Amino acid sequence: MKQRIIFGILMAVLFLIPFYVGGYFFTFFTLALALMVFYEYSTIIKIRLFGTKFFVGIFGIILMFSPLLFDWNSQLQIRVLLALVVFFITTTVFNRGFSIEKAGTVLIGVLYIGFGFESMAEARLDRGAEWTFVVLLTIWATDSGAYFIGKQFGKNKLAQAISPNKTIEGALGGIITALVIGFSLQAALGAYQSYMNTLIITLVVSVAGQVGDLVESGLKRHYGVKDSGRIFPGHGGVFDRLDSWIFVFIGLKLIGVI
């Protein structure tokens, strides 16, 4: 437990320094995180690391960041993305060991990871440090509330086939904790436009974060993997730590606040 706490603090510091600096420094840092997560994702779905398909996937992740890094227009981005789709589908014809299901899984990973982390970088650039930090605190509040309330009062399983330890009571506890923290931060910092805005964003963050965690759990269970990686002792991989963040920032982009 002591080692887990120490590494948890270290991880927070390593993230908060580039987050505080912001700008292109944080954007490149976020891209690095996305590439690390895609590496771990590739080990989970069992594609050959550092092979052609792996590097095409890496290129796809960078492509998702292209509007922030290279000032590409969206039409060019879409055309290159379609080229990636054609590439993965075509390789299933000439490679017996690469099925259409595996091609789709790789593409989903590129879009899911790429858009998630790109949206996080965009939130920091466009909405600022305070707004984005409140979102992150809401994610942490949800995780903490779900864990402690679920441990104390949890009886009804939320998704037993995917994550046996998660309960409905814990999920609701996470949402309630997030709302308490969200409204408290709004009163203290006024990061959002209004309390109604706070309610909507907090609910989206809390629900999307828990769904994101379940999605990664389902992915690992399907492929028989316990942790996405071992980069942090006691914490698993980067994907394990940031799975909820991906869905949160995609969700915020979908509702138009990023």
Automatic annotation (TrEMBL):
Pfam families: CTP_transf_1. It comes from the Bacteria. Its EC number is 2.7.7.41. Its main location: membrane. It is found in: Cell membrane. It is a multi-pass membrane protein. Keywords: Cell membrane, Lipid biosynthesis, Lipid metabolism, Membrane, Nucleotidyltransferase, Phospholipid biosynthesis, Phospholipid metabolism, Transferase, Transmembrane, Transmembrane helix. The chain crosses the membrane at residues 6-38, 50-70, 76-94, 106-125, 131-149, 170-189. PANTHER family: PHOSPHATIDATE CYTIDYLYLTRANSFERASE (PTHR46382). This is Phosphatidate cytidylyltransferase. It comes from Pontibacillus salicampi. The lineage of its organism: Bacteria, Bacillati, Bacillota, Bacilli, Bacillales.
